Amino acid sequence: MRIVLAGSTGVIGRRLEPLLTAQGHEVIGLSRTGPVAVDVLDRDAVAAAVRDARPDVVMHQLTSLNNRDLAANSRLRRVGTRNLVDAALAAGVRRIVAQSIAWAYEPGAEPATETTALDLDAAEPRQTTVAGVAALESAVAEAPEWVVLRYGTLYGPDTWYARDGLMAQLAAAGRVPADANVSSLLHIDDAATAAVAALEWPGGVVNVCDDEPAAASEWVPAFCAAAGVPAPAVTVGERQGWARGASNRFARTRLGWAPSCPSWREGFATV
Questions:
Q1: 177: in domain
Q2: How many independent structural domains does the chain possess?
Q3: 166-221: pLDDT as tens digits
Q4: Cβ(34)–Cβ(9) under 8 Å?
């Protein structure tokens, strides 16, 4: 297949492109600095790039997180995704695979499943993130065939959660809490392999995360140990309702996907 990979120079895109090529796919990489240099916020440029590429599939792995500007990332999800989806539909593309997140769900007691509603009534600043996710997923669902990958918190080489990553630096400064909030994590390589598998998955949203949602009081000290930085003191208190983690049961039992790192416990050895 001919695949437009939007975000080809990002942390997932750099891993994804060789995996797709190895399977015989022809990949056309789009990014601000990639082989096809396009600003996804430029509607006309995106339309021309996708039209000229004549793809069978569009893969959306775009983020804007270099400056930790969540508003900019939300704008990319809203405006950039709209431009990319409109370009794909105009070019006759049938399938879109897009990156989303697994921590935009509404509050609850258990890890969220794909049927759990998004936290659309969240207060700011969370509202900005959730609204961006909702806009992205709604736009992608306009394609005849679509898969939204709700990734867990990414860790491993080149991510924020790496030995030389942003979170290791913040942890060393005592600015990463080890509290009751629950997360689901995902090794960066598993994010890439899931995107490849999604080429054949039935349409819908899929939680793509490891098997062990955990409170920060458990996993943050383990990450700090792996990164070689001091662990923060564990804090006692109630978790925020939305910080519930996500279940990957659907991917494992219905799609036959399983992470190569089933838990952050062994996966952190790669940071």
A1: no
A2: 1
A3: 999 999 999 999 999 999 999 999 999 999 999 999 999 999 999 999 999 999 99
A4: yes
The pLDDT mean for the chain works out to 96
pTM, full prediction:
0.97
Tens of pLDDT, residue by residue over 107-142, are 999 999 999 999 999 999 999 999 999 999 999 999
* 120 domain-assigned: yes
- The residues pairing with 215 across neighbouring beta strands, listed in sequence order, are 182
Residue 37: how many other CB atoms lie within 10 Å: 13
Q: Which CATH number characterizes residue 54's domain? A: 3.40.50.720
Q: 20 lies in which domain range?
A: 2-154+187-210+246-259
Q: What is the mean pLDDT of residues 99-103?
A: 98
Contact residues for 125 (Cβ-Cβ < 8 A; gap 6+): 70
142 close to 253: Cβ distance less than 8 angstroms: no
Sequence-separated (6 or more) residues with CB below 8 Å from residue 65: 73, 160
Is there a domain that residue 144 lies in? Answer: yes
- Contact predicate 255/185, CB 8 Å: no
Reference 88, options 148, 25, 32, 4; nearest CA is: 4
For strand 182-183 and strand 214-215, is the pairing parallel, antiparallel, or unpaired? antiparallel
Give pLDDT, residue 34: 79
Q: Is residue 163 part of a domain?
A: no
Helix 13-22 vs helix 188-197: crossing angle, to nearest 10: 40
